Amino acid sequence: MKTLLRLTMATAALSLMGQLYAQEEQIVIEDLSRAELRSEIAKIENEYYRVFNASTDDVDLKVECYDYTPTGSHIKQRACEPKFLRDARNANVRAWQNQVDELASNQELQSQLTPEFDMLTTAMNALLLDDQYFRELNAILRMLRERQQELEG
């Protein structure tokens, strides 16, 4: 059974002065094309991580989103990662280039950084409990990603 997901959400637009203005708009998720869906996910992710980053003083937990092109591909992809993961990957690459250590896979790095990921999870869960806007962004992002998986599956 296909359900029509109607979502009324408060979207945020930042002015040049950094002030937040909320405006209500209605989006029918099932009517979005794949490209529109990716664009909406990026927009909500940007706001989600902006709110999270503003709530934490720990620089290593701050999350940055960026586009990259994987080796052997011409198709850009998007990733959102905390600073501690980017720093660990960069240190691992430098150690590998200096022939001090082997190049670790993403899974190996994530396994090595379990305590840091636990701290990130704790910080995000605390913000989810305390901030209604962050909870709404989380719910919207989850619905958009579920729809994206439906289209890809």
Commentary on this structure:
- The chain has one domain (33-152).
- α1 runs antiparallel to α5 (132-152) and α4 crosses α5 (132-152).
- With 153 residues, the protein is α+β, with helices and mostly antiparallel strands.
- Helix content is 54%, strand content 20%.
- It has a two-stranded antiparallel sheet with strand order 1-2.
- β1 and β2 form a beta hairpin.
Any descriptors?
4 strands; 5 helices; globular; two-stranded antiparallel sheet; two-stranded antiparallel ribbon; alpha+beta
Task: Furnish the topology, listing elements before pairings.
Blueprint: E1 6-14, E2 20-28, H1 34-55, E3 63-68, E4 77-82, H2 83-97, H3 106-112, H4 114-130, H5 132-152
Antiparallel strand pairs: 1-2, 3-4
Helix pairs in contact: 1-5, 4-5
**Biggest sheet features:** 2 strands, antiparallel
Strand content is: 15-25%
User: Termini, distance in Å?
Assistant: 16 Å
| Biggest sheet, spatial arrangement of strands | 1-2
Question: Using DSSP, what is the number of strands?
Answer: 4
Unreliable parts: 1-24
Number of structurally distinct domains: 1
Number of helices: 5
Assembly state of the chains shown: single chain
Question: What's the rounded overall pLDDT mean?
Answer: 84
Radius of gyration: 18 Å
Q: Would you list the SSEs in sequence order as H and E?
A: EEHEEHHHH
